[in-house]
Amino acid sequence: MIRVLIVDDHAIVRKGIRALLSESGGFEIVAEAADGQEAVICAEESQPDVILMDLLMPGMDGIEATRRITEHQPGARILVLTSFAADSKVFPAIKAGALGYLLKDSAPEELVRAIHQVHRGEPALHPTIARKLLQEVAQPADLRTPGPDALTEREHAVLRLIAQGLSNQEIAGELAVSEPTVRTHVSRILSKLHLASRTQAALYAVREGLTTEDEAGQEEG
Description:
- The protein has 2 domains: 2-136, Rossmann fold (3-Layer(aba) Sandwich), CATH 3.40.50; 141-220, Orthogonal Bundle (Arc Repressor Mutant, subunit A).
- The protein is 53% helix and 13% strand.
- The chain has helices at residues 11-24, 36-46, 62-72, 87-96, 108-119, 127-138, 153-163, 168-175, 179-193, 198-207, 213-216; strands spanning 2-7, 27-33, 50-53, 78-82, 100-103, 124-125.
- The two termini are 24 Å apart.
- The relative contact order is 0.11.
């Protein structure tokens, strides 16, 4: 069972998501929150596997809630579920630590699939959002980072596999190392390249030609 925290200021949306996940099976709704502050508290208390996060809410918004949750729980897996595809929402949400970004006009099966991807530690991006992020790194004024020569050969290999959408467990299997070792490599990659998330690391790999857009977008299909 994937334990889910639903964060949205509209009760009807929360009820709809609860009904959808209940019908799909394999999910347990451990808590609901109607604003960012409540989300931070619920995340700490319930320790969910995946957090579905709305962005526009009264008081503390979803971006600030995402930032605070990931500060205290670096392993938190947050999937943004919102109606907004504006750059002013997308990039701050990803920078704050969201692992996925889905629009509310997505099909129900897309939401279910995205939750599973995020639960596995894989980025899950609506195609519109993926295009925005790829366009952003094509002109990376805000994401200038050290060159790939800052990484070791093994870190290069891990980065390429991250870009292909593999989870830490799958990367460990590919490279015949332990999962904790992979986590260490991922942490060092993010630190060396001054990146905030696996999603940014995947986009960096595309930009530097370490993998292709088709490989990086495989999880979208």
